[in-house]
Hints:
- This is Glucose-1-phosphate thymidylyltransferase.
- This protein is an alpha/beta fold.
- The protein has helices at residues 35-44, 58-65, 86-92, 94-97, 116-125, 199-208, 228-242; strands at 2-6, 27-28, 31-32, 48-53, 74-79, 102-105, 110-111, 129-135, 143-147, 153-158, 167-175, 213-217, 222-223, 256-258, 261-263, 268-270, 273-275, 278-280, 285-287, 290-291, 295-297, 302-304, 307-309, 312-313, 318-322, 325-327, 330-331, 336-340, 347-348, 351-352, 357-358.
- It folds into 2 domains: 2-236, Spore Coat Polysaccharide Biosynthesis Protein SpsA, Chain A, CATH 3.90.550; 245-358, UDP N-Acetylglucosamine Acyltransferase, domain 1, CATH 2.160.10.
Amino acid sequence: MKAIIPTGGRGTRMQPLTFSTNKHFIPVANKPLIHYPIEAVADTGIKEVALTYNPGWLDVVKSYLGDGSNWGLKFTYVLQEKPLGLANVVQVCEDYLNGDSFVFHLGDNIFVDGFKDAYESFIKGKPNGLLCVGRHPENARMGVPYFNRQGKLVKCVEKPNNPPNDLAIIGVYFFNNDVFRCFKGRDKIKPSARGEYEIPDVYQWLIDHKYKVDVYEYKGRWLDPGKFGDWIESNQYLLDRNTNGEIKSKIDKESLVEGRVTIGKNCKIKNSKIRGPVVIGDKVVIKDSFIGPYTSISENCFVENSRVENSVLMAGVTIRNVLQTIDNSLIGTGTEISDVKSQHGNCLELFVGEKSQVRL
């Protein structure tokens, strides 16, 4: 059994950040997004993982993720030459898989409790494919399973106009080697209207050709931080769940820390108040400032004479002399926000790409 995790995609819903940053490496609760699926795969006991990448990205992805040994895994990097959809990610991995069954885990989905039960269901039931579904109030923007009166899966439809249920096809898919037949022959699957090969079409091909497709309903919490609002919400949820309150740096006597606050090594906290849940990376300086709940601050950030809450600060951000509270914001690597003196409103909401400068 092997795994596939994609690191490609245009990430258009996260622009402007993704003009220069791969969305899989934007942090959620101070951890790169793609670390969550890697950890979930490792938790099943699978050891071999294909990481697919787009042209021009190999060196960047390798610099972030290495050979997999940090997770007890072995990574193989597989090129997806053109952005032809998620099913094409499966297709380009055929040689790598070499006949093995596999799980395909989206690189931008988080299964908070892992997916070990679904994995065991696939191993035990030995279907040709296992479709994982979860309840979602906005499933019309996702793939949706259709069942007959006997409860048997009969159809998978991408983004239907009027879904017959509240179930959505979620981002972990299981197949055995028979799946590659859907890419070959006269009745192979075809690109959708948007020019991509879709995962629901793969399952539909298996159903139509009388292969065994089981369904597993995932009842745990899963997160799909594909756009700005979802990213902030995912950051909130994971900070609530995972902040352990470990403080590895000294805090001066004029500062106050309340609630669950995690602080990394070699930080300087001076005359400031921090109210958790908050996570702060290594080598961060906070002076004369307030850091409010649901904020994650990556390494090498500097915050002075400012207020920040419910926000994500990527590495190397500088915030200095901002009169309004920076709230509900996502700020890209190396950005500088300073001398903001505008009095219009009490809060400042920002969504800023990397290495920007903001002065108002």
